[in-house]
Design brief:
hydrolase, globular, nine-stranded mixed sheet, 15 helices, Rossmann fold, disordered N terminus, alpha/beta
Length: 461
C-alpha cells in the first residue's frame, strides 16, 4: 500500500513551484529540504509495506502466491488457527482451456505446515463448511489441515451459462488434481482424500483418474452404480433388517395408498403451500413419494418403531410420510438438479419395485422416473454411459491403493457399495452393524475403529 503525504499530492504542486522561484540560496535550501522529505517518504512507504507484509500470516502469503486463486476471505473458526474461503479459477474443460472457465469455491483450514492434509471431495455445495464449528472427521482425528472443494455446478461453483456438457466425473477429478497440485506447495506432507455419499464417489473416481495425487483415500458410504436404475437396491430392501421391520414398513406404505382418497388433498395442500412444481400429476407424485419412503427411511436410519400403525389418523399418516419422503425430491427446480444430471449420465442411481403396491398405484411402472421427473427438460432423453463405472471397477481390481471404505449395514446405498472386493492388502471395507448413510469412523464398533486408526497412522508415517 502506497500512502501519499500531503506535500506530494497534486493539490500541493502549484505551491512548490512558487517556492522554487525564490533566490538561488533559498532555492538551494528548498531543494535540499525536498530531497530530505522525499527520502523520508520512500522510507515511510517501505516501512508501511513491510508492516503490511508482516501482518499477513505465512498461510496468507502462500495463498497469495497461487495464481489460480483470485480472491481470499478470512473465516471464523473454533477448530483451526486460520480458515479462509478462496476462489480458484478452473477451466470448464481442462483439455481445452480456451472453452472458458469458472470460479470454484475452496475452503482452507490450517492445522500446521508440518501436518497431513485432508482434501474433502465434496459432491455437492460447500456452504456448511463455512460454519466456524465445522471440522471434518479425519481432520479432527488426525489433527490435519483441511482443503474443502465445492463440486462444480453447485452453489458458488456454478458456471454461467450452465452448459451441461462440462459436468462430468472426469472434469471433477481434473478440478481436484489442479487444487491438490497447487496446495501441495503449501502442504508438502501426506494427503488424504475423503468424501461422503456422492463425495465418497468423488474420492473414489478421483483416485481412479489420479492414483498418485494422494496417499490415502477414505470414501464414506460411496456407491458404485452400474446403471440409471442399478438393480441391486430393490433386492437389498427385501432383505434388510428383520421380517417384522420390513412388514411394518410395507404395511405403512399400503395404508397410505389405500387411504389415498382422504390423504391426497392433504398432500396436495402441502405441495401448494410449499410452491412445489412437478412434471407429473399430483397423484403420481404421491405414489412416487410412497415408493421412495422405504429407501429414505433406511438411508437415514429412522427407527422403525416410529412408524405410525395402520390404525393411525389421516393427519398422523401424512405427517410421517412427509417427514421421511418429502415430495420436494421430485420437483422440477430441485437444488440437486446437477446431481440428477450426473446420476443419469454416468454415476447411476436406483429404481423402485412397484409390484407389492401395483393394485393401488396410478402409475403403471416406476421405470424411467429419474429422466421423466428430475432432469432438465433438454436432457430427459440422455443415455447412461457405463464407461466410468467400468473404469473404476477395473482400477480397483487391477490395483491396490491405500483405501478405507466405510458403509452402514442397513443403508440401501451399501447395495452398490465396494463390498465385493476381496484379497487386497491395502483396500479395506468396514461396515457399521445396523448403520445407515450416517456411518462414520466414529460410529464403528470400538475394535473396528481402532483398526481404522491403526491403518491410517501406519500409512501416514
Amino acid at each position: 500500500m502506497v500512502v501519499l503525504s500531503p506535500f506530494l499530492s497534486g493539490r500541493q504542486q502549484p505551491e512548490e513551484e512558487n517556492r522554487l522561484s525564490l533566490s538561488p540560496i533559498t532555492n538551494k535550501h528548498i531543494m535540499k529540504d525536498l530531497r530530505t522529505r522525499h527520502t523520508a517518504l520512500l522510507l515511510f512507504t517501505f516501512l508501511l509495506a513491510s508492516v503490511s507484509l508482516s501482518a499477513q500470516t505465512g498461510l496468507q502469503q502462500k495463498l497469495s502466491e497461487i495464481s489460480a486463486i483470485t480472491e481470499t476471505q478470512p473465516l471464523e473458526s473454533t477448530e483451526f488457527s486460520e480458515k479462509y474461503v478462496t476462489y480458484f479459477t478452473q477451466p470448464l474443460d481442462h483439455r481445452h482451456p480456451e472453452k472458458g472457465s469458472f470460479r470454484q469455491r475452496v475452503i482452507v483450514a490450517h492445522a500446521g505446515f508440518d501436518r497431513p492434509t485432508v482434501i474433502i471431495t465434496e459432491g455437492y455445495g460447500a456452504a456448511y463448511a463455512l460454519k466456524p464449528q465445522y471440522r471434518e472427521e479425519l481432520s479432527r482425528l488426525l489433527n490435519a489441515n483441511m482443503v474443502f472443494v465445492e463440486y462444480r455446478y453447485f452453489l458458488e461453483s456454478t458456471p454461467e451459462p450452465k452448459d451441461w456438457r462440462y459436468l462430468t466425473a472426469e472434469s471433477s477429478a481434473d478440478d481436484l488434481h489442479a487444487v491438490t497440485t497447487a496446495f501441495k506447495n503449501i502442504y508438502p506432507g501426506k494427503w488424504i482424500a475423503t468424501g461422503i455419499s456422492k463425495g465418497g464417489q468423488t474420492a473414489l473416481l478421483y483416485r481412479t483418474f489420479y492414483p498418485d495425487d494422494v496417499d490415502v483415500s477414505v470414501p464414506y458410504v460411496a456407491p458404485l452404480c452400474y446403471g440409471t436404475e442399478d438393480g441391486r437396491h430393490e433386492p437389498f430392501l427385501k432383505k434388510v433388517s428383520t421380517d417384522e421391520d420390513r412388514k411394518r414398513i410395507t404395511d405403512f406404505q399400503l395404508e397410505i395408498l389405500k387411504r389415498k382418497a382422504a390423504l391426497l388433498p392433504l398432500f396436495e395442500k402441502y405441495c401448494t403451500e410449499q410452491e412445489y412444481k412437478f412434471r407429473a400429476p399430483i397423484e403420481e407424485i404421491y405414489d412416487y413419494s410412497v415408493l421412495e419412503y422405504s429407501f429414505a427411511l433406511w438411508q437415514w436410519g429412522t427407527p422403525v418403531g416410529s412408524i405410525p400403525l395402520p390404525t393411525a389418523t389421516d393427519a398422523e399418516l401424512i405427517a410421517h410420510l412427509l417427514a421421511i419422503s418429502d415430495p420436494s425430491y421430485f420437483t422440477t427446480d430441485s437444488t440437486n438438479a446437477s446431481f440428477f444430471v450426473q446420476a443419469a449420465r454416468e454415476l447411476g442411481y436406483y429404481g423402485y419395485d412397484t409390484r407389492p403396491f401395483k393394485k393401488y398405484l396410478s402409475i403403471k411402472s416406476g421405470k424411467g422416473y429419474l429422466h421423466r421427473l428430475m432432469l432438465p427438460e433438454e436432457l430427459k432423453d440422455m443415455p447412461f454411459d457405463k464407461t466410468l463405472s467400468r473404469k473404476i471397477k477395473g482400477f480397483l481390481q487391477k490395483n491396490d491403493p491405500k483405501m478405507i471404505f466405510i458403509y452402514g449395514e442397513n443403508d440401501p446405498w451399501t447395495a452398490a457399495g465396494v463390498t465385493w472386493l476381496k484379497g487386497k492388502k491395502n483396500i479395506h471395507v468396514f461396515i457399521q452393524p445396523g448403520g445407515s448413510h450416517l456411518a462414520r469412523i466414529s460410529t464403528l464398533p470400538e475394535k473396528k475403529k481402532e483398526e481404522v486408526m491403526k491403518l491410517l497412522n501406519e500409512w501416514l508415517r
